[in-house]
What we know:
Blueprint: E1 2-4, E2 13-14, H1 29-37, E3 42-46, H2 55-76, H3 83-93, H4 100-108, H5 117-135, H6 139-152, H7 170-176, H8 179-185, H9 195-203, H10 226-238, H11 250-258, H12 265-274, E4 283-286, E5 291-296, E6 305-308, E7 314-316, E8 325-328
Antiparallel strand pairs: 1-3, 2-3, 4-5, 4-8, 5-6, 6-7
Helix pairs in contact: 3-6, 4-5, 5-6, 5-10, 6-9, 8-9, 10-11, 11-12
Amino acid sequence: xxxxxxxxxxxxxxxTSVSSLEAGIRLTNEHLRLLRFLKVDAIEVAPVERRPxxxxxxxxxxxxxxxxxxHYNQWxxxxxxxPYEALEFIHQLFRQDYPLSAIVKFFTNQPLRKNHVIHHAxxxxxxxxxxxxxxxxxxRLQFDYGIASYFADASYAKIRKWSHMRYFTKMERExxxxxxxxxxxxxxxDRTLRQRVGKLVAEHHERLDGSGFPNRLEERALHPxxxxxxxxxxxxxxxxxxxxxxxxxxxxxxxxxWQNEAYDGEALTxxxxxxxxxxxxxxxxxSSGVRGKIHHYTPSVEQPIVVSEPTQETYDLxxxxxxxxxxxx
Length: 329
């Protein structure tokens, strides 16, 4: 399909070469900035890729999970985390780019596990890296998200007497709230890792409105890289089962996070775009009670043009301040 450049969103596949951009690439914010700089009016694109892992990809990822579990088991035996192991592990994990849809489908189909932090670390790393890539971040920052996810919950290994299959006591929960700081303290002090890795580890449970832990920091006090990592961490938590609740669907998790001010709007928009939530043809429910289908993209991902069913009335959500999409069908 041919779209005006203002209606093209990240994750779409370029079908015809434009300047230095070759056909077949999946567009990032960096690519879109280049196209706007070149004053390109319209381009041929395909929708965001939505597919599961291939058998080979799934096998490779399962091997990575088992490898990380071996590292984690060493920490339980009081062997200190090795930063060089972490660097090599994330380098291997990030060698291949996976569609976000494949990542989410794989991890949301996993059963409840006794030690969920092992899967969570890999899930969070891949989600954060993907969001960072399509935001147009430099490769070093994408890599640091992976390293931060590798270490963020390492402190759980110090409390292996706690079973993750039961509720915590009040005292245990108070200690649990300090785990980001304990994990940060486990990082090497020889500057093997960049300083912002420690900030990402310490702040991954904070919230932009100051409601998080351990330090109840507000947005202005957070490291600039932290808001995206917070979104990745919380989305992965919500879409995986825990002993005290069932997993939310990706759409439910997205709407839960979108409806308050605790999470970064740009990262959430990237998440929804790359998962194809707002693709043309999808049936949606509007806050006005109208049910319809997304008919056309607009410059704002969350405000497409919707045609109601069965009246065929058109709703341009960019012009309706009080009407928004509240559910996907």
